[in-house]
Amino acid sequence: MAHDGATDPRFTYVNECALQCFKYPRDSFIGMPSRFSASELDRAQRQVLLEQVTANGIAEGYSGWRVDANNQPFMIYAGVVWTLLNSQGQACGQAALFWPDEQRIGVVD
Fold it and tell me: Does the domain spanning 2-104 belong to CATH 3.30.450.20?
């Protein structure tokens, strides 16, 4: 999944695994402010992660709570978040990879 580089970033890309986890239709997910991927209680922790990525270009090994379209919490594991660069080498957003099942980290079906 990925979001743009706006002050209040919006999702620009989502794969099928993330859609299943977040339970949104693709058309609703794309363009949604990415802060809504975490509950209000977990947004501060998420923001710290995003600031680490902005400062360092990447963060690895992140696990944390997210919330689906029905406001039901779920955990993500072994997350990697990195800065996206445009053709001029300037930051234009961030992308993330995570695993929804701690027992299947690294397994691709």
Answer: yes
